[in-house]
Design goal:
Length: 176
């Protein structure tokens, strides 16, 4: 049975645009092991970092369907982060790549995983891209995003070419 997931992507180290594009490409390559199908990509937003002083983040989201458990997907996402230089040394520290399950068609509360993401209702940089790829959730999350001050500034849109398997950031002030 396929499950729908929305994955949050973030980067504030290195060439942030490249890191987000590489993450989309890596997630798309999970098609064989986890039966992942990429369904939608969000705008890319820029926001100040939470935590210790560090560079600003670029954030986005992707929507996918997969025939796997949330735990299996999370393990694959952690492997992608590690392959792109992610280390877990400082809580809320800078990251070359951060991949989180923001939302799924089935909620989950375990010691390892909380879906929807435990901090989702506090983060405009997660809510805005979530709503880009899952507009049907607006009834639940759009009022929260507005109470938090609205979406962060848009820096472009992710574009994925399934034929070549490549992703790039297209300069655009709006999604779609």
């Amino acid at each position: 049975m396929d499950h729908v997931f929305v994955i949050g992507l973030g980067s504030n180290l290195g060439v942030r645009e490249h890191n987000l594009s590489a993450a989309v490409e890596a997630v798309a390559r999970l098609a064989l092991p986890l039966a992942v199908r990429l369904e939608a990509l969000s705008c890319v937003y820029e926001s100040a970092a939470i935590g210790p002083p560090q560079p600003a983040y670029l954030n986005a989201a992707l929507r996918l369907s997969a025939c796997c458990t949330p735990e299996a997907l999370l393990e694959a996402l952690h492997a992608i982060e590690a392959a792109h230089g992610r280390t877990r040394e400082v809580h809320w520290g800078p990251r070359s790549l951060d991949l989180d399950i923001l939302w799924a068609s089935e909620g989950r509360q375990t010691e390892q995983l909380t879906i929807p993401h435990a901090q989702l209702l506090l983060r405009t940089f997660a809510l805005a891209p979530l709503l880009d790829v899952a507009p049907e959730l607006a009834v639940h999350y759009a009022p929260v995003l507005e109470r938090l001050g609205g979406p962060p500034p848009v820096r472009g849109t992710l574009r994925y070419d399934p034929t070549s398997g490549s992703c790039e950031l297209a300069a655009s002030a709006q999604c779609g």
